[in-house]
Amino acid sequence: MSEKSSSKDAVGKEFELRLTPMRRIQKTLYRYPWLSSLAVLISVVLAFGLVNERFLLPSTISLMVQQTVIVGSLALAQSLIILTAGIDLSIGSIMIFGQMVMANMAVFAVASNVTPFAGQNPYLAIIVGILAAAAAGSLNGFLIVRFGLPPFIVTLGTWSVFMGLALIFFKARTIQGPEMPEVMLSLGEGFSVGPFFVTFGLLVMFALYFAVAWVLRNTAWGRHLYAVGDDPIAAKLTGINTNRVLFSVYLVAGLIMGITALITIGRVGSASPNVDPMLNLQSITAAVIGGISLFGGRGAVVGALIGSMIVVAVEMGLSLAGVDQAYRTVAIGVLVIAAVGIDQWIRKVKV
Amino acid sequence: MKGNSMKTTLFTSRFRKSRFVSSLAAAGAAALILSGCSAATSEAPSSSAESGTVAEETVAVSLILKNLTNPFFVAMEAGARAKALEIGVDLTVGASKEEGDDQGQIDLIEAAIAQGQAGILITPMSSNIYAAITKAREAGLFVIALDSPTDPADIVSSTFATDNCAAGEAIGQWAAGKLDGKKAVIAQLVIFDDRAVPVDYCRANGFLMGMGIDVPTLEEMDSAASSGSYTSGTGGDYEIICLEATGANEEGGRSGMERCLAANPDINVVYTINEPTAFGANVALKAAGKVIGEDVLVVSVDGGLAGVKAVQDGQIQATSQQYPLRMASYGVQAIYDIATGGAAPANTSANGQFFDTGVTLCTDETQDAVVAAPQEDSAYCIENAWG
After folding, report:
1. Per the CB < 8 Å rule, is A269 touching B193?
2. B262–A319: do the CB atoms touch at under 8 Å?
3. Distance linking the first and last C-alpha atoms of chain A
4. Could you say which of B3, B279, B280 has the minimum Cβ distance to residue A167?
5. Which CATH number, 1.10.132, 1.10.3470, 3.30.420, 1.20.120, labels domain A33-346?
6. Whole-angstrom distance, CA of residue B98 vs CA of residue B80
7. Looking at this predicted complex, what is its ipTM?
8. CA distance B268 to chain A (A)
């Protein structure tokens, strides 16, 4: 925090108002940090389109959009936390935990003829699963707010804890699609719009982005969230209950992870504890490439969606070009560092 | 990521510089040795005086696993317990507390030494426990590595594991037979394609070799030419469309399959590293309008219960089943035999580095082209499935 504010002061004195084209770009990007990622997305798509004509086929684009659904939804949760200058490493394992809770309960509800579960519909299981993830998220928030522990450490711990709990409670068992009530898989279904296939999971993800973006822009809570992320001390001095804001952010993020759990069951077609354990890092990657500043307080959540799409497009494009996975991994890494570099540069703007 | 069934497969049969010899010979040899093993048990011990003391003193064995939750290890525990009960072995089961907890395994090894047990069955966590294993062997314990060979292999007295190359070869032969001369348009869904892990390249390249495709370097994932002709079955042309890393899980399987289909929608043979990957791939194939079993053949390795049920449902056409339960059960028997004066088991794998616990090809449409493993139908495999 101190590093950030001091650099800001120094920069403030140094720069006078003389708008070269470069500075104009810098200033525009400062106001709309997701613009640079949008530019990257467009150039990536065009470049890969030139390399392989199959890349721009509607069916390929449709696939890529569908592929963003899990990381995209988690990146939304991650963005909220990063906006408060926090980080959440437990994001994938809380999602998996929520998934295992809802799937097991749904199967139990179907199989059991014991009260109080007999005849319960799977909607209850879904709600309980989402609430379990929300509770897990708020545990993060509680530890961070109540004991002042750093988010990195707390979520590193809970990452392990919830992965372990998912394995202990549910014996690491994958629940296959046909075992579950159909509604559990409904977010994987969808409808065709011309050559594009739209899953309900995608609609839910877009709705979440829309809702969060609207709330951030139009409510006091949204404004406070940015303020806390930008400068918690200043925020406190202006009368914001920073602890309450922080806690609520982790709770909301948990809620989104719970909803992502249902989206994931739909997309994967089963509830498995073996979903990629690196989802936490992927969501951070997407948020950072999308222009959400790791220093907090700056960035628009739509950037995280664009960031997820960039990652998916790079994966698909390099795959179609026949490039080894190792190079794809390198490419994503370069993108992350470039994104953070651009973020640093933009922050030097005089407001 | 800890303790899921996919991860175990990662550590399965790590024989580095193995040469790919016909596994038919291996299977035959395995059968011979197996009968030899059981013969040894029924034989009277060499010295009757010794046998008298042995009968009074129970043979004690420790089974040390990586964890007790992974279905693969749960199967091992069940196999060991059943065998111990049957032949009257005093079995102690333990596991490290978490992935990477070497000390947990070392403690259990030292406890076994202190109790003067006859032997140890262990799925070694890492090379950090080798010193403890050596200490145990020096103290006269017979140590068998289960599923995960040590490097070098002679750290332990013996290794009981799956021959993953043979497992891959069997599904390759099956696919070639089933294609019956049609062009093979192949998708390969592996764990990594940036890291050489024995289970990964052995299964994936074994699959290609089983199809009769030339693989110049077994240890290299993209070693085979991307197009040419295969020779197994009636033979035909092939084209490898993609080699996608999936992390061996459902989501990776789906995304990987989607990328393959984007590159070429005419894929008709899908190799998957394990069954969860196959389930993910199936979702992508169905979304692309493919009828599994008709438009496209999906083959896999593992033989977990869900996997062989999928064979029965026609969602996976063929899968090579491995036997964790058997690894542990044979292990208990072997230590019992040695403690009662029998001989140590000989290595039966193609490369002679481990005791091959066998592979069965599970399919409901047997193919004459399959020689790398015996073929059984899904009902048999469900009966014998782990997890």
Report:
1. no
2. yes
3. 19
4. B3
5. 1.10.3470
6. 21
7. 0.77
8. 18
